[in-house]
Amino acid sequence: MHIDITNFSAYGGCSAKIDNEKLEHIKSAVINKNNKNLLIGLDNNEDAAIYKISDDFAIITTVDVNTPLINDPYLFGQISACNALSDIYAKGGTPLTCLNICGCPETVGNDIIKEIFFGAQNKIDEAEALIVGGHSIKDPQLWYGLSITGSIHPEQIWKNNTVDIGDVIILTKPIGAGIIFSVYKAGLLSLEEIKSCIKEANTLNKYTAQILKKYNISAVTDVTGFGLGGHLIEMIAPKKYGIDLDINSIPVFDNAIQWYDKGFSTSITQKNITFIDKYIDYNQFSRNRITQHANILADPQTNGGFLVSANNKIAHQVVSELKNAGIENSAIIGCITNTGKIKI
User: Fold this and answer.
1) What's the CATH fold of domain 168-343?
2) Per the residue annotation, which of 14, 82, 104, 197 is the catalytic one?
3) Could you tell me if 13 and 66 are in contact, meaning their C-beta atoms sit under 8 angstroms apart?
4) Which tens digit of pLDDT belongs to each residue from 63-73?
């Protein structure tokens, strides 16, 4: 019997995230204790935590869960696993072990959960990591994710905020998947019609990371629930830098802007807009164009691409190699400035 698993969640994918403002308030209750071996902790919304074991070995830890954004349980498992694994790759690390985490309504059959697990296993195998256990609970909403441990050399860590003035910003996947999946969840698009979003969402960022490791890049983060604008702000806010953003160079999924224009949205887009608005200078665009730009910059991604800050001398070579490796939507979308604003 066919069951639409998206009906078992109020939201889909990373659009289910708590918004940035609320998250910051909640985090204030958590104490980030000083420890000489804690190389990355709670600071600056990094993609994962890193703890140093020895001079040449550190462990990376992260956890990520998702609610169904498509009705194919196998594909949902693949996408959720890719999304969780991306946090390890965004730090420059190698995933080692994974724990399944699952919330399951009692009305969802065992075969569906098994298909989700099979899909995730497929991507974990591709990542050359291991499933070593997990935890599951009964829950009115269906959700699945991974807790992952990875490894990295302490001197080879990528951070999300170590950008330099004059650096070029590279984006490796299109944005706009949040609204496309939201419209699909509403029953207005078929799996066939969103295949380009699915292709990107269940592609491991492993291959992007392998190429980036060949270069001396400045900073990396992945684009997820806070949207392109939110993650750009994470890169520049600590140093109060700015970005000259070439809005026309940003790869966007077909029809994403048009669905926003028709009045559709995601559960987190407006809250993302509120957060990023004070950082963005929309220049002399018309009100309609400002609304379009704001929507697409705030659109939440699930297993989105990497944002890469790199010296201009190597950026074009990096993009060329990414494209040659099949990461064909990679594009230079702007450069780091000292203005303190994202200028479009």
Assistant:
1) Phosphoribosyl-aminoimidazole Synthetase; Chain A, domain 2 (3.90.650)
2) 14
3) yes
4) 999 999 999 99
